[in-house]
Amino acid sequence: MTDVRRANRIERLRSVPAISCRQFGWSPSGAQVHLYTLRNSAGLTARIMTYGGILQSLEVPDRDGTSENVTLGFSDVDGYVHDGEPYFGALIGRYANRIAGARFVLDGREFKLTHKRGAACLHGGVRGFDKHVWSADWWRSGDEVSLVLSHRSPAGDQGFPGSLRTEVTYTVTSEPELRIEYRAGTDEPTVLNLTNHAYFNLGGEGSGDVLGHELTIHADRYLPIDSNMIPTGELVAVGGTPMDFRRPRSIGERIADGYDQLVLAHGYDHNFVLNRPEASPLAPAASLLDPRSGRLLEIQTSEPGIQLYVGNLLDGTLVGTSGKRYQRFAGVALETQHFPDSPNQAHFPSTVLRPGETYKSITRLLFSSQ
Question: Is residue 328 part of a domain?
Answer without folding.
Answer: yes
